[in-house]
Write a structure and sequence with these properties.
This protein is mainly beta and 118 residues long. Helices cover 0% and strands 56% of the residues. The chain has no helices and eleven strands. The strands form two sheets. Strands 2, 4, 5, 6, 9, 10 and 11 form a seven-stranded mixed beta sheet that branches. The N and C termini lie far apart (40 Å).
Length: 118
């Protein structure tokens, strides 16, 4: 089992920045990909970015430019740097992890609220 705990959310003004952290514990040797997702009220959960164990990153086109995912394997932590935040970035941000050979995310964190005021 793997446990994921997010932190770093909060209230920020438009144009500001936040850095989210996701600390992983447990059987992390089984994890290949970790990612950040978000879900705004009334909307479906969407991918923000993910990063492989080797450091390769993927961003949907809509997330390119303002979001940066990174990981510190020694600290077993994945980060999401968010810059130039907009009110439409307001959402609950979730960390997820996928095991090797798994097609879907196997573990999810509880989420951290990000609110961007205009």
């Amino acid at each position: 089992q793997v446990q994921l705990v997010e932190s770093g959310g909060g209230l920020v003004q438009a144009g500001g920045s936040l850095r989210l952290s996701c600390a992983a514990t447990g059987s992390i040797f089984s994890i290949n990909v970790m990612g950040w997702y978000r879900q705004a009220p009334g909307k479906q959960r969407e991918l923000v970015a993910h990063i492989t164990n080797g450091g390769s990153t993927t961003y949907p086109d809509s997330m390119k430019g303002r979001f940066t995912i990174s990981r510190d394997n020694f600290k077993r932590t994945v980060y999401l740097q968010m810059n130039s935040l907009k009110p439409e970035d307001t959402a609950v941000y979730y960390c997820a992890a996928r095991r090797y050979l798994s097609a879907n995310n196997d573990y999810w964190g509880q989420g951290t609220q990000v609110t961007v005021s205009s």
